Amino acid sequence: MKILRLAAAAALLVISSASAFAETTLRIGLAEDPDVLDPTMARTYVGRIVFAALCDKLFDIDEHLNIVPQLALSHETSADGKEVTIKLRPNVKFQDGEPLDAEAAKFSLERHLTFPGSFRKPELASVDHVEVVDPLTVKLVLKTPFSPLIAQLTDRAGMMMAPKAAKTEGDKFALHPVCAGPYKFVERVQQDRIVLEKFADYWNKDNVFIDKIIYLPIVDPTVRLANLKSGGLDLIERVLATDIKDVRADANLKLSSAIELGYQGITLNIGHDKNKGPLSQSAKVRQALDLAIDREAINQVVFNGEFKPGNQWVNPDHPYYQKDFPVRARDLEKAKALLKEAGVTPPVAVDFMVPKGPETEATAQVVQSMAAEAGFDMKIRVTEFATSLKQAEAGEYQAFMLAWSGRIDPDGNSYVFLHSKAPQNYSEWVNADADKALDDARLVTDMAKRKEIYRKLTKLEMEDEPILYLYHRRILIAHTNKLEGYKQMPDGLVRVIGLKLK
Amino acid sequence: MLNFLARRIAQLIPTLFFVSILIFSLQHLLPGDPALVMAGEEQDPAVIEQIRHQYRLDRPIPVQYVYWVKGVLSGDFGESLRIKVPVRALIEQKLPVTLQLGSMAIVIAFLIGIPAGIISAVKRNTVWDYGANIFALWGISTPNFWLGIMLIFLFSIELGWLPASGYVSPTENLKASLAATIMPAFVLGNAIAAVLMRHTRSAMLQVLESDYVRTARAKGLSERSVILKHAMRNALTPVITLGALELGTLLSGAVLTEQIFSIPGFGKLIVDAVFNRDYAVVQGVVLVTATIYITLNLIADIAYILVNPRLRG
Questions:
Q1: Contacts of A121 in chain B (CB under 8 A)
Q2: Half-sphere exposure of B152 (CA within 13 A, CB side)
Q3: Predicted model pTM
Q4: What distance in Å separates the CA atoms of residue A227 and residue A243, rounded to the nearest whole number?
Q5: CB–CB of A386 and B268 under 8 A?
């Protein structure tokens, strides 16, 4: 009997010590299957979530949107703004053992700049060439000063790829990506899973505690949440606002959130409306539509009050938000008066293109009923996303509900939509003063001065209203209690450094 | 016979050719531009131009078609625009998954549908019959996506018996594979089971009233032997043909079911490809599906001839 007990105790010891050393796996549920895992060619938001564990960048951001060093240690911009010198972190290795030095950094930046079909090319368009100063220093020589450059390097344009692997794999690099992040690539089964494992020689390995990460794309938000609840997943992204209550009520789950960097708004067709509707012809009519909308009511009705009403391209907590242009209250009388002044007789018919989706459609319906009270007849046309992009480009709409996932620098949220020569100026808004402000803001690095320039732009935008900014979503991440140390960053990505699984 | 076979196979070629043109042109009729969709938020005109050029999207559609057919004839289905993986590799990876799901669904359908049909015919106008009929009505009228989510709530969240979604290959772990596919296979099989039940019931009713069954009973055979040996065999022939025809329902059902349960099969592949305007993938998948259908049809034709010499003509 004694022997039996001893044996049982020994067995227990073996089991418990085995579990202490057992491999820990973090299973993350994604809302979509990512596109190519090549930092030069990647385009999706969901892909950036995987890159957050796979590929480190020269710089990163903190919770307050400050730019902090990652693979770089520091940066310095010359007085004329045309040279940016970056010091690299010493003793950093790529996941195949190749050292990350100035030559490797130059290689990565040049690949982003020159690779056929590179999506980073426009982001780094200001860079003329890259020079190696010493083994741990690179210099970016610019064509013109470009203040958002360092912010660009906190994202895919700043991701470093192992030169040898990138050269051998060419345009197939995405199938076996090799970077300098905390986890290295193991395998990918399309639409099923992406598996990463801890990289033993990572520069910050003391803060990496989980052995393996598996990303599982599960498109249906209900099923994603069901998997989290049943223990099939440890963390899920993009929880529906309507499921927040459910997550909070579950004692095994935790919700992490942050207000997004992007915005949700309605683009109003000014320059290329074929039917020349009143909305495109008069700023007063656009003002009237703006005044007819109660943003807080949208937030309450559609999103249980969880999102943030907004009226600018950055959210009200952002350092670049212009506080002297606050969200206006709804004013129906004024809206009706403005329509009268503009000389139009209600109802003003508006072709309102809305990309398919439960949240966008619900918002559109609330906007429709609010606008009706002021004298607008918003005819909602629910359109599949790919088609809506094409029609927006062709100007086949009068109002278009559009979301932007957001960039760290305010330039990334404004320039491409508001500059008269920008590709995504779907409104075709042409305003020379606005163009000048957008261009000027790119030349100045001092924040106070830049903010003053954006102030001018905000005023112009609010007078002309090419885009009615409505609200900013809350990034909603739910995870089990077993996961410790999770902190949500405003860019929505899932950072894995410091995470522990109990 | 050989003559007939040769004729039928010769017919295959123009059919497939026609199908390929249809797939190609229908897809290009879809509004939306693959280069724009692929670019996502990064809508830089120079980059989009580069993509169009790289994938020959800037060439006239007939030229694109010729390039595609040339590739297909040499076994190259092109490359996915979105993920840069050869379409052939994707098909090879996904087809077995859907085949596994489909065969499990068919087995479930037969296991439920035929016994239920026989019982309700034999016990006509009893509680058994009404119960089976209610089941059939429920099976036909329950939407796939609703049943799927309800099963997930019951078996994954409440009871914690089965994984809520995902897929494991049977070669990797048979038990886990069955656990992952049993719910989606049931959802798929359930609707077919209902159809099979209704047909088995009416076929059985007809057979049970026929002369030879009366003769069998008159000979003093046991009821069990009359039903299983005499009636069922004859009644099942049309039902099995019907089951084979339901393969079509299976493939279209898989599109939705795979989406709900995140099963990385053919259905999910095509849905994602259509929304992403990943032309090469859609074309490849539809062409392979069409070829499977046509081949199955041919096999069925041959089988009929083997069974019924009058058709040999």
A1: 44, 46-47
A2: 29
A3: 0.84
A4: 14
A5: no
Total residues belonging to chain A: 502
Mean pLDDT for all residues in chain B:
83
Q: Is B260 within 8 Å of chain A by CB?
A: yes
Q: At what angle do helices B174-208 and B127-141 cross, to 10 degrees?
A: 120
Cβ-Cβ contacts under 8 Å, A385 against chain B: 37, 275
Give the integer Cα–Cα distance in Å for A459 and B128: 75
- Asked if A172 lies within 8 A of B50 by C-beta distance, the reply is no
Model pLDDT for residues B200-251, shown as the tens digit of each residue: 888 888 888 888 888 888 888 888 888 877 777 777 777 777 766 677 778 7
Minimal CA–CA distance to A215: which of A184, A243, A236? A236
Q: Evaluate whether ipTM surpasses 0.90.
A: no
Where are the alpha helices (H) located in A21-101, listed in sequence order? 45-54
Q: Say yes or no for a CB contact (<8 Å) between A230 and B260.
A: no
Chain B residues whose beta carbon lies within 8 Å of the beta carbon of residue A190: 83, 85, 90, 93-94, 264, 269
Cα dist. A236→A192, A303, B180, B259 in Å?
A: 15, 19, 20, 17
Which residue of B lies nearest to A31 if distances are taken between CA atoms? Answer: B262
The pLDDT of residue A179: 97
pLDDT for position B1: 67
Residues B17-56: tens digit of each pLDDT: 888 888 888 877 777 777 877 777 777 777 788 888 877 8
